[in-house]
Amino acid sequence: MTVDAAGTVDAAVTVDPAVTGDAAVAPDTAGAVDLGFPALAPGRVHHWGGAFLVVARRSGLPGSVPWLPLSPAERCVAGALPAWRRAEWTAGRRLAKHLVAGYTGAAVDAVEVLPRADGSPYALLGGRPLPAVHLSISHTAHQVAAALAPGPVGVDLCETVAADTVRRIGDHAFSPAELELIGTGPQEGPAAAWALKEAAVKADRTGVFGAAPRHVALLGLHPPRLGGGRRAAAWHTAGADADGEAGGAAARADAGAAPAPGDAVLALVLAPAP
Q: Which of 64, 140, 183, 260 has the greatest number of beta carbons closer than 10 A?
């Protein structure tokens, strides 16, 4: 896998540097009615806002995660995990290793991706950390995504079938104004809102299950807008289409059909350097 500068993704982004994470969020009812997130092709490296992003299927379909062996240090980390967690952790690291190798021009087997003390991933080349490379990884049962940027970056996948769960626990992560913004519209709304919040706290290297999500102001969903000078984008990603085509999730949403297993919204957030 190599980084192809021509494989770019176009998305509207609105950044208001004057808005902070503590600012009040005004409801955006237009954004809750027609989301229209574009589709993201699996297995290709996309370039957006200075970041490189790739999403892949976990296995068995075109665009699946490439196989490669883990380093001894990576195997040590993976071996301490439960079997279900080990599988998704390994898929995420393999995808991130290919992304780093394509970005640096290094051999993929020279790249390691290990966890910091807070659990966030960092890249090493030939055993030495790459301080100018920031990584983020996300996975579901069906897909895995990795993002790389010269500054703080967060990526998150949220399956659209999780929309009802997001609404049930919404008081934990969303303000009343943000819940009104999400509304009762298509399932992509709650999925996108959750993914954007989690991608933002990953970029900040804070935890999604603490108070951190409340400090990320969700200002809009279409286009995605966050407070604190963060830049954000979101896409459809198809998880389990029988034909393996990337546009399946968006086509089903346009037709008013139910999501297929694994369909998700992928959010990418670039945060200002601390």
A: 140
The per-residue pLDDT string of the chain (274 residues; one tens digit each, 9 = 90 and over) reads 444 333 334 332 323 233 222 222 222 233 333 346 899 989 999 999 999 999 998 876 667 888 888 999 999 999 999 998 999 999 999 999 999 999 999 999 999 999 999 889 999 999 999 988 999 999 998 999 999 999 999 999 999 999 888 888 887 778 888 988 888 667 888 999 999 999 999 998 876 555 566 788 999 988 899 999 999 999 989 876 534 444 454 455 555 555 567 899 999 999 998 7
Q: What angle do CA 102, 127, 107 make, to 5 degrees?
A: 30
pTM of the model: 0.81
- Neighbour-count burial of 236, counting CB atoms closer than 10 A to its CB (0-12 exposed, 13-18 middle, 19+ buried): buried
Of 219, 217, 220, 197, residue with least CA distance to 208:
197
Bond prior to 223 in cis (omega within 30° of 0): yes
